Amino acid sequence: MKTVRTIAELRQQIADWRAAGQSVALVPTMGALHAGHIALVGAALALADRAVVSIFVNPTQFAPNEDLARYPRDEAGDVAKLAGAGAHLVWAPTVSEMYPEGFATRIVVEGAALPLEGAFRPHHFGGVATVVCKLLSAVTPDLALFGEKDFQQLAVIRQMVRDLALPVTIRGIATVREDDGLALSSRNAYLSADERYIAPMLYKVISEVARGRDPAEASEALLAAGFTKVDYVEVRDAETLVPFVRGSGRPGRVLAAVWLGKTRLIDNVATG
Predict the structure, then answer these.
(1) Residues 134 and 244 in one domain
(2) What is the mean pLDDT of residues 205-210?
(3) pTM metric for this prediction
(4) Which of 250, 249, 248, 251 is nearest to 270 (CA)?
């Protein structure tokens, strides 16, 4: 496994693999890798001949008041984990490589990007869509894999790929959880010991909503359990993210965003 920093180096390696008739999978990450990311790499290796993992903390998806500066970074540790997982290439570009001087093009997203996270973080999905489009353009993978932990992000990326007719298959991989149900996330490192004790209640409560519990009642239960603030607990159509209609025969998804102290956690589960 090797690490490359530039699009030119990346494309040369991809060209060599293509010349050998090999398929390519991409796992986009922002680093601070955990077992959830490694599961994505495992899925990539099962589905393609070569697995590329990108590590890039994308500044355009963070608002000025968000945690870009303190977002956990450990490239050396990440590279060691990826080598152990069997990845073939790490692409770790600089900010200037991804957004060179004079960069002036952005993707504007609507549809699945507007509710939920889109309402609380209106800047966010435009930055996500722009960087993912650049990643896909640079790697030209046959497929790209994303965790269902960021379910709305997955829906937005699928919408972008469909709308722009990008020649790539998007695969969602099930959320990896701790034994107590807490979804793995790089931001879990922010939690204090007391907050970590409370955090699994999020999964428990949204699972109850998936079985029919009222979302408003669930929000009150989360606050009573010690969460500082509930941004939303909602049941949405799993494909379009419009409000879910029970009995419609459509797939549903419970999505939630909450605060524990200064840490914002998101999670989701399929409806029963």
Answers:
(1) no
(2) 98
(3) 0.96
(4) 251
Nearest in space to 27 (alpha carbons), one of 6, 48, 13, 8 = 48
Same domain for 139 and 220, yes or no, is: no
Distance CA 235, CA 232 (A): 10
| Catalytic residue, candidates 37, 88, 123, 124 | 37
Contact between 2 and 89 under an 8 Å Cβ cutoff? The reply is yes
**What pLDDT score does 111 carry?**
96
Task: Output the six-digit token pair for 27.
Answer: 């796992």
Phi, psi values for residue 25, rounded to 5°: -115, 145
Q: Report which of 202, 203, 209, 259 is spatially closest to residue 230, judged by C-alpha positions.
A: 259
- Report the DSSP beta bridge partners of residue 126: none
Confidence grade of residue 128 (pLDDT, cut at 50, 70, 90): very high
- CA dist 114 and 110 (Å) reads 6
At which of 173, 197, 224 does a domain end?
173
Q: Is 34 a catalytic residue?
A: no
Would residue 136 count as lying in a domain? Answer: yes
| Same domain, yes or no: 190 and 104 | no
User: Count of domains in the chain?
Assistant: 2
Sign of the C-alpha dihedral, residues 66, 127, 77, 169? positive
State the CATH number of the domain containing residue 142. Answer: 3.40.50.620
Residue-wise pLDDT for 32-79, tens only, equals 999 999 999 999 999 999 999 999 999 999 999 899 999 999 999 999
Reported as a single tens digit per residue, the pLDDT across 131-156 is 999 999 999 999 999 999 999 999 99
Residue 28 domain flag = yes
Rounded Cα–Cα distance for residues 231 and 241 (Å): 16
Domain region containing 212: 186-270
